[in-house]
């Protein structure tokens, strides 16, 4: 059989092709979209591209090369600045998703961009075979800032990795290592987590995420995981036992519906962990790093409710992949050389970016601003509750991790808002979730809720 080498060559889009594609999508925005939409959806400023538009054709041409892990709407975003995103048709969207609580300092922050540019010319990666300045500097800053801002009072060390799920994997491993040290017989291995939690999609983190739609396709999962109900103090004695190595809990469940653990529950949980010698892990990947108006969500709790480990990611890199685990000495002393590792984690580029971000988020004015913006959101949400008391049931959360609990599926509201230039997302069961950049202004919040009100009016 003759080899058809010419037809089998890898086709990589050229810069000219990309430029042409962008031009065509913009032409579409100014001609086809304007005329077609005017006929049917004159009220919409940002109608989703049609399947046969240049954007739609681009998406479907590329989808056949992508593993089907996400269902995405048709707009293709190509640029961001502050609280805004622009699609390939050059339409601007006000973003209340913050990259799912990632872009705490907004899209394309100029200081972060400058740091990335400078460090990329200096040193990006050496592996963890060698010391570099920034991994030590970031570890120290995380520990010191945690203590200084009222978080885990006995924090001593940090492990830097690449993502939130990797941080939780490390925390689970560290908890089991502590369990083996405390019970050499090997019975202290169980990890406890809670229903409606989300800790990641790798196999260990997934085992701690008791949601059937996530777990069922990959069963059987890792043994030794038990699940309880958030805020059920009475169940803690049977849930957390002498066999428990660690307890993994989100102070505010993000993906699960913006459900807050009560201070009383977290205090009782910490007491039970101390009683049986279990390690307490606070997953603050989504709710930490300033999102609640304190540096860590648990910083408002008494020291007796503080964890032994904090897992973090998301806002730590503002879009650059990085995560971390902050531990106390009881945990640190159980982890020895060779127990855990990472190739990319702690690279100089990510650590320098995160060092800058931690410093900015920890500023008093930033944290106080988050608290003030929560009040603007709640005042605006009160108007929605007054208009639709049967549909808008509850406001949940704290700071800039907030949820509107709806009586029905809010997906039509998400679409209606997007087609009016506002990006919002859902969580849990019938919850609209709001996790914008911490830098959003009060005026932009009011503008966003005004658009949301128009969207709700169109579908409720």
Describe what this molecule looks like in 3D.
The structure is a single chain. By secondary structure, this protein is of the alpha/beta class. The chain has a domain at 111-362: Type I PLP-dependent aspartate aminotransferase-like (Major domain) (Aspartate Aminotransferase, domain 2, 3-Layer(aba) Sandwich), CATH 3.40.640.10. The chain is 40% helix and 17% strand. The protein is built from 17 helices and 17 strands. The chain has helices at residues 5-8, 15-30, 32-40, 54-63, 98-101, 110-120, 133-148, 164-182, 203-207, 212-215, 236-239, 263-276, 329-332, 348-361, 364-387, 411-418, 442-459, and strands at residues 77-81, 84-87, 92-95, 155-161, 190-194, 225-228, 244-249, 252-253, 259-260, 279-283, 309-312, 323-328, 392-398, 401-406, 422-423, 425-427, 431-434. A seven-stranded mixed sheet has the order 4-12-11-10-7-5-6, with helices on both faces. A four-stranded mixed sheet has the order 1-2-3-15. It has a four-stranded antiparallel sheet with strand order 13-14-17-16, covered by helices on one side. Strand 13 (392-398) and strand 14 form a beta hairpin. The model is unreliable at 1-42 (pLDDT under 50).
Topology summary:
Layout: H1 5-8, H2 15-30, H3 32-40, H4 54-63, E1 77-81, E2 84-87, E3 92-95, H5 98-101, H6 110-120, H7 133-148, E4 155-161, H8 164-182, E5 190-194, H9 203-207, H10 212-215, E6 225-228, H11 236-239, E7 244-249, E8 252-253, E9 259-260, H12 263-276, E10 279-283, E11 309-312, E12 323-328, H13 329-332, H14 348-361, H15 364-387, E13 392-398, E14 401-406, H16 411-418, E15 422-423, E16 425-427, E17 431-434, H17 442-459
Parallel strand pairs: 3-15, 5-6, 5-7, 7-10, 10-11
Antiparallel strand pairs: 1-2, 2-3, 4-12, 8-9, 11-12, 13-14, 14-17, 16-17
Helix pairs in contact: 6-14, 7-14, 15-17, 16-17
